């Protein structure tokens, strides 16, 4: 990216012409994050962090409503703990940062900067769990994780250090674990689709792509404008794969000792990256109202002689809207023109702009402008509460409909490997829905040949964003897209971040 990017306020590239550069410019010019010299690390600026805080606030409330409590975990893990579940650790080993000394003194045991927390947390669970009365145990953490992403980094999407949420539970039986997995995935799906307004495809990961150490992984996958998939949230059934090596046992109601059944689940600030990509346009960000740090920006328009009066009315309106629970800001800066302010707040994605000037005061009106489609509406001041509520509702509906329409356009039924390759190489990418034999060898060969992997094995084909009718007849033929052997699974492939 050019070091002189801030010399021009607006975006210098269009989203559909240079998506990667567009994304980088939005992050910097909207004031979300900045880069440091260490590859893969970013500084999140207050505006970007405020979005994360709103995501955290919403989900944290949902978790607590379902019986989860928050804790804190250190970021260093002794190597010996990681080796207790060798298969799990092997999956993360290439990404681990190691601490090998304290000052100039070598450590007796290497310490890993936490890539994930299962080994660290589960080494303590035996101290917390002794009886069935201690179960279910439901605990959640808001923290950072560190993974050595140094080859292909992208802010908020793929970083060496990132903010995330990870939950962990322990249960008496597998039924309790299964229910937990689906409950959390449902919370994620409701949030991502109804609040972030990003439609998803839900289902299982393949055995090859599941979380290392899990019996199975459930996932929510989104489609980005460049035709690549993005994993938005996962929920894992860990079975007894960790409770046995870490000896997490309990006495059941018959006073017999058993191993617990476990789950883990998480989302990260990757959701911010998805928001930028899915909803942004050539003017910058477009933020859904619930996660917008500023939901309404008020621009007073005045000349010197009426400056005081207009600002007074603008702040009175701000107080009125703030009392209704909205996050409102009045831009009173005299050194910038109204037009310059319009562009700045459009860049930051504020959902609604209100313009108010001397003429509006005299007529007892205000002008409301939607960020997504820039539609303007002149309304009586005494109807502002109802109009704002309705405008937010329409904006949310339109953002989701537009994103869903795009997802539908980017989801294709594919019958054979030639069409599969053609769509990826000469088309726009997207989700490719097809038959798969269930053989991991075919899965790996498709990945090698096309760069696409299985993103999700859908819970229900009828929930996919495609029309299942005559055009999907081949899906009933049960013939693998690659080897043409008998197929027992519908799979959704894509190239991905």
UniProtKB/TrEMBL annotation:
UniProt keyword terms in alphabetical order: Aminoacyl-tRNA synthetase, ATP-binding, Cytoplasm, Ligase, Nucleotide-binding, Protein biosynthesis
Biological process (GO), any one: prolyl-tRNA aminoacylation
GO molecular function, one term: ATP binding
Aminoacyl-transfer RNA synthetases class-II family profile domain boundaries: 45-288
Catalyzed reactions: tRNA(Pro) + L-proline + ATP = L-prolyl-tRNA(Pro) + AMP + diphosphate
Subunit text: Homodimer.
Comment text on domains: Consists of three domains: the N-terminal catalytic domain, the anticodon-binding domain and the C-terminal extension.
Gene3D superfamilies (alphabetical): Anticodon-binding domain, Bira Bifunctional Protein, Domain 2, C-terminal domain of ProRS
Recorded name of the encoding gene: proS
Organism: Candidatus Nitrosocosmicus franklandianus
Family named by the database record: Belongs to the class-II aminoacyl-tRNA synthetase family. ProS type 3 subfamily.
EC number(s) given by UniProt: 6.1.1.15
Function recorded in the entry: Catalyzes the attachment of proline to tRNA(Pro) in a two-step reaction: proline is first activated by ATP to form Pro-AMP and then transferred to the acceptor end of tRNA(Pro).
Pfam families registered for this protein in UniProt: HGTP_anticodon (PF03129), ProRS-C_1 (PF09180), tRNA-synt_2b (PF00587)
Gene Ontology CC terms: aminoacyl-tRNA synthetase multienzyme complex; cytoplasm
Record's protein name: Proline--tRNA ligase
Subcellular location: Cytoplasm
Signal peptide: none
């Amino acid at each position: 990216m050019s070091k002189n990017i801030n010399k021009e306020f607006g975006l210098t590239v269009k989203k559909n012409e240079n998506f990667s550069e567009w994304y980088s410019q939005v992050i910097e010019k909207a004031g979300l994050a900045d880069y440091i010299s260490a590859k893969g690390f970013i500084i999140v600026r207050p505006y970007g962090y405020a979005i994360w805080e709103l995501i955290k606030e919403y989900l944290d409330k949902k978790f607590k409503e379902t019986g989860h409590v928050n804790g804190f975990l250190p970021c260093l893990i002794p190597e010996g703990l990681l080796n207790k579940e060798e298969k799990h650790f092997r999956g993360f080993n290439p990404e681990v940062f190691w601490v090998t000394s304290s000052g100039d003194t070598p450590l007796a045991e290497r310490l890993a900067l936490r890539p994930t927390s299962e080994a660290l947390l589960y080494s303590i669970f035996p101290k917390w769990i002794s009886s069935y009365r201690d179960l279910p145990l439901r605990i959640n953490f808001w923290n950072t994780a560190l993974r050595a992403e140094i080859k292909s980094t992208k802010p908020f999407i793929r970083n060496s250090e990132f903010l995330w949420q990870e939950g962990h539970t322990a249960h008496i039986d597998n039924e309790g674990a299964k229910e937990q997995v689906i409950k959390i995935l449902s919370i994620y799906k409701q949030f991502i689709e109804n609040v972030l307004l990003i439609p998803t495809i839900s289902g299982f990961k393949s055995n090859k792509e599941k979380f290392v150490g899990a019996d199975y992984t459930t996932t929510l996958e989104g489609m980005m404008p460049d035709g690549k998939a993005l994993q938005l949230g996962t929920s894992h059934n860990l079975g007894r794969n960790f409770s046995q090596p870490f000896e997490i046992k309990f006495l059941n109601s018959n006073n017999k000792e058993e191993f617990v059944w476990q789950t883990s689940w998480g989302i990260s600030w990757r959701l911010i990256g998805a928001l930028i990509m899915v909803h942004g346009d050539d003017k910058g960000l477009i933020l859904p109202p619930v996660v917008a740090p500023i939901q309404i920006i008020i621009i007073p328009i005045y000349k010197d002689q009426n400056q005081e009066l207009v600002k007074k009315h603008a702040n009175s309106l701000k107080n009125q809207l703030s009392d209704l629970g909205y996050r409102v800001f009045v831009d009173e800066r005299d050194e910038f023109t109204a037009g310059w302010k319009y562009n700045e707040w459009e860049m930051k994605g504020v959902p609604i702009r209100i313009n108010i000037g001397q003429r509006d005061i005299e007529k007892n009106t205000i002008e409301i402008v939607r960020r997504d489609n820039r539609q303007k509406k002149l309304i009586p001041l005494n109807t502002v509460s109802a109009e704002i509520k309705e405008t937010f509702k329409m904006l949310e509906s339109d953002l989701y409909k537009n994103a869903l329409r795009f997802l539908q356009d980017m989801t294709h039924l594919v019958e054979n490997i030639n069409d599969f390759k053609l769509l990826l190489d000469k088309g726009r990418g997207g989700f490719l829905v097809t038959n798969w034999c269930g053989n991991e060898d075919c899965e790996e060969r498709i990945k090698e040949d096309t760069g696409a992997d299985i993103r999700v094995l859908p819970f229900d084909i009828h929930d996919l964003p495609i029309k299942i009718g005559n055009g999907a007849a081949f899906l009933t033929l049960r013939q693998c897209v690659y080897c043409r052997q008998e197929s027992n699974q519908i799979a959704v492939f894509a190239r991905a971040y």
